Amino acid sequence: MKLSSISQVILNLALGVSAGPYPAPRSPGCSSHVYPGPVNAGFETGTLDGWEIVSGDTFGSASVSDEISYWGGPFDQVGNFFLWGYAQAGDAAVGELKSSSFQASSVMSFLIGGGYDPDNVYVALVRDSDGEVLLKQTGQNDEALIRIVWDTAAWAGEMVHLLLFDNSTAAFGHINFDDVRTGCDALGDGDLTFNVLGQSNQPAAGSSEACTLYASDPLRPQFHYTPYQGWINDPAGLIQWNGNHQLFSQFNPAAAVWGPMHWSHAESTDAVHWRELPIAMYPPYPNNPDDTSGRYTGSAARDNATGALRLIFTDFTDTTFHPDAVPEVVSTSASTNGIFFPLYPDNPIIGEPPANSPSGFRDPKVFWDTAASIWKLVVGSGDNVSGKVHLYKSADLVDWVYVGVLYEGDGSTGVMWECPNFFPLDDKWVLFYGGNGLGWYQIGTYNGSTFVSETSGLVDAGPDSYAMQWYQDESGRNLAITWMGNWNTYKWPSRVNGWAGQQSITRELFIREDGGLGSKPIAELASLESRTTKSLTSQTITSVLNLGSAKAARLQLEMDVSATTASAVVIELFSSTAESVLLTYFVSNQTIILDTTNAGYGQSGTWWAIIDIPSRKLNLDVFIDRSSLEIFAADGTVITATIWPKYQQSSDIKITAQDGAALFNSITLTPLASSWC
Ligand SMILES: *[C@@H]1O[C@H](CO)[C@@H](O)[C@H](O)[C@H]1NC(C)=O
Ligand SMILES: *[C@@H]1O[C@H](CO)[C@@H](O)[C@H](O)[C@H]1NC(C)=O
Ligand SMILES: *[C@@H]1O[C@H](CO)[C@@H](O)[C@H](O)[C@H]1NC(C)=O
Ligand SMILES: *[C@@H]1O[C@H](CO)[C@@H](O)[C@H](O)[C@H]1NC(C)=O
Ligand SMILES: *[C@@H]1O[C@H](CO)[C@@H](O)[C@H](O)[C@H]1NC(C)=O
């Protein structure tokens, strides 16, 4: 479906929605000092002419490549050639490559790919006179190239050179490099301006409050939980305890990649505005960074006897370093002040998996079994043929007795189920879990020991939802937060800014009309709507409606499908002349398709869902947050994705009707404020 086939009449309503109330990221000035960059700055000679091999054997004549793509997609080089650090001698080789000397301009930029390893794989800007390293940048553990902008005004006019440094023999122990630009060309392509990425553009953690720290990073969501540095994955320990919502995350503060797992900790009075608290739990062997032993995913409960906040989690031991250990056991810690979580001295509380659990044994989730008036927990497992969920019971949250297998799959949703959650909802019981890299639910009945599934489906129709966790808040709502990531992608562009991973907004779960599991955004998100909403009513779109642009906003619309003659409507998000996300709704088959194949640096693909519109009204509620996209349909469908635009201009929002007219009863675009300010 080509947008160019649409008639050229454009309704530009220019709603005047601008960036948030907080300081937006800016580009440095470019024109005061402009000098040529190094010789053969984009390797377009097809050789290393102008570059000097300083040491090692990782760089050589085979390093310059005109390959277009690798196993994960295009390299995205500029021109024909680029430096592919793997091509000459693989990951195991090391070495250094130096550019010719050049005078520093006010600004420069380049493309980098390859290993994320700030100490061992990087490009450095080095001053000729004293050899001082002025700036450094590492890659993102992906072959694809990403644009880094360096403000070099402080050294303008001085003689400098670039040093490509690879001292890693590990996987991704290589650096890719291309297209060094200086002066105003460094900042963009024609009318388009690059998002200013790179570690040197990020304020140091602790130098400022999260509000301003996060505002300055163009990729950083403003109302989602992200780590100030390092990596997060699964949300854990969700609970409203003594009034405050608690959000823990699997966390590696040392690097923006998975590693020895800590539990980060944040709390909130409304499940929208988060406040970072000290790390709740640390891995057991911090002195050996190669030992991946850590505190894996788990859950929280309020101890009935003491009122304490108890965490119950998988204690993982790396058997490379501890060959006699049981790798996955269940341990606990408890806090009376909500800050310090001392470990229970008699850990583990479940010392080994039950029989027939060879695929794994992890992610205990505690719930109060209303049928039996006792604590229960579910834990994920599998027997190499199908995933399964084990059930335990306890009177005091510490002594656990095995009940049996709560539920077992048929293998189609994976042979190891992670992060199971089990809870009553309306008059049913809901089981959801992660398997085969996706989130699945089953809804059915439960008799105290066994679950019988009646309905099943995907928890989320988009790419970036895994390890969702449920909790019931003090008002009795069933809430959930999901990790906006997945294990299949190599695309973590924010690694170049020193962080990776984000948690979704808080959702409320409900049983859909069709009996499936539905999600909707919690009502408290309206508290972010600090400025004027722009709204339209009774809008007939026959071609294109430009809604304006926004980087942190909520788009809500209702389309009257009965009064629509168009075959499809396309909602363009994160859009500029160079890139955009396409969200297409096909009227004939009620299918919505998310297309990210031309949406910047992230994972590209298409994902779809069929939307139920019993009253012939399509209602969508879309949350846009710099690199986050969450799309909720009124029937309970949710599509969660991360989006990583290349250009600052990629924030336009447009609606196009194809082959006819589309009638919208209402369209509102509301800027959302930072939840950290
Ligand atoms: C490269 O790494 C090795 C082993 O980790 C280390 O001994 C050496 O000092 C490093 N070389 C440089 C130039 O940093
Ligand atoms: C224990 O706590 C749970 C969860 O907060 C609650 O539902 C239950 O009623 C409590 N049980 C007792 C015996 O107090
Ligand atoms: C099951 O899978 C695990 C993990 O892949 C493997 O270590 C184990 O040998 C397998 N066990 C059986 C019984 O096939
Ligand atoms: C629950 O159902 C299972 C499977 O039908 C059965 O084996 C078990 O005895 C039942 N348990 C109770 C407490 O009714
Ligand atoms: C719905 O229709 C569109 C347009 O014909 C098509 O591309 C899409 O594959 C269809 N989806 C389903 C689920 O049939």
From TrEMBL:
Domain Glycosyl hydrolase family 32 N-terminal residue range list: 224-516
EC number per UniProt: 3.2.1.26
Species of origin: Sporothrix eucalyptigena
The UniProt record lists the keyword Hydrolase: yes
Listed Pfam families: Glyco_hydro_32C, Glyco_hydro_32N
Signal peptide: 1-19
InterPro entries: ConA-like_dom_sf, GH32_Enzymes, Glyco_hydro_32, Glyco_hydro_32_C, Glyco_hydro_32_N, Glyco_hydro_beta-prop_sf
Alphabetical keyword list: Glycosidase, Hydrolase, Signal
Family, similarity comment: Belongs to the glycosyl hydrolase 32 family.
Organism classification: Eukaryota, Fungi, Dikarya, Ascomycota, Pezizomycotina
Official protein name in the record: beta-fructofuranosidase
Annotated Glycosyl hydrolase family 32 C-terminal domain residues: 527-669
EC top class, as a word: hydrolase
Cited Gene3D superfamilies: Exo-inulinase, domain 1, Glycosyl hydrolase domain, family 43
SUPFAM superfamilies: Arabinanase/levansucrase/invertase, Concanavalin A-like lectins/glucanases
